[in-house]
Fold:
Amino acid sequence: MRKRMLAVLFAAMMVCGVAGCGKTETEPTQETQKTAAEAKEEEMLAYLKEQPAEIPAETAVEEGFFTINDGAVAGGQEAWDAFLTASEAGKETSVVICQYSQFDGAILDYLYYSVETGYLLVTDETRSGYESEDEDRDFYYTRNFEVLKVFDDFSLQEGGTAYDICVLTNEAELDEDTFRTYWTEMSMEAHQTQLLYVI
Structure:
């Protein structure tokens, strides 16, 4: 009797073991992906907060940031080109863009791309020199975009000064004329579109 009960018990264990072996890993859920994106955002914020209180253009270039000063690239073009190449190929990549406010304060944009998150942008304006009457204002901003567009020789009006600009948007079909309309109407935020840089 004992032997029979043990045999039944072992048989049951074998069935459970085989059933367990047949399990396949499930696809990551939306909640898991969201958690991964949140973890990446925290990592990006921590990196920005570690940066020194003052970042002259020379320091930004030495750090490998894509640095734009007085409307021109001061350094880091290779980092930006590598970011564009990798993101266009669907590879995970990131770059830090450093630009300067009218007060010569550094504004950092940490841009990360992966197929799962799209373009994740964390902006740090703590060194910008901008002041706010709102004591609770947060000088860090996080946004997600699906598409990055670079428009060469872009002018806001016909015959106007031409610039190279980069735009982040959630509109895959966004073109220069549409962006020009958003800019003129001051409706970029409403259309989930952001100007990243002007050169």
The first helix runs from residue 2 to 21. The chain has two domains: 30-145, 146-199. The radius of gyration is 25 Å. Residues 1-24 have pLDDT under 50 and may be disordered.
